[in-house]
Design goal:
Length: 145
């Protein structure tokens, strides 16, 4: 029997990854401002004036945004599985695979940023998340009937 709270662990791991990227983003931005490579005025309204944000910083910022988009469906799914007592071993495996693929996506995005590799990790994660939701829906329907 799967413990219901186990579905929360992958969610906690993904939250941790999101916070790590957030801290990295803050450090890189503040470092750029303190060294004079970035002008603090840019961050007032995030205007694309003179394209002053370096590509590495843009990739980090975009990755942070990515961690706040598709994963929202993941978090809702984890909470739904938890509150409906629909946690299964399959859901846990899919949840951990999704988190792993988000980690791979992040690593690619903030390092060498090859678009094909990054997109492949993103699509694979999206497909796993679809599978997660199908499994969750079938499990919830099954417990209701």
């Amino acid at each position: 029997m799967t413990e219901e709270t186990e579905i929360l662990y992958p969610a906690f791991a993904l939250v941790g990854l999101t916070f790590i990227v957030l801290v990295m983003l803050g450090i890189v931005r503040m470092g750029g401002i303190l060294t004079g490579r970035l002008h603090p005025e840019y961050y007032k309204l995030f205007r694309e004036r003179d394209n002053q944000e370096p590509d590495r910083l843009r990739a980090l910022a975009r990755n942070f945004q990515n961690l706040l988009e598709l994963p929202m469906l993941f978090y809702v799914g984890c909470v739904t599985a938890y509150v409906t007592h629909a946690v299964t071993g399959t859901l846990l495996v899919l949840a951990w695979i999704f988190v792993g693929l988000r980690l791979v996506h992040t690593a690619i995005h903030i390092t060498y940023n090859a678009q094909w590799h990054r997109t492949s990790a993103f699509v694979a994660g999206a497909l796993v998340l679809i599978g997660f939701w199908v499994e969750l829906a079938l499990r919830v329907v099954d417990t209701q009937g």
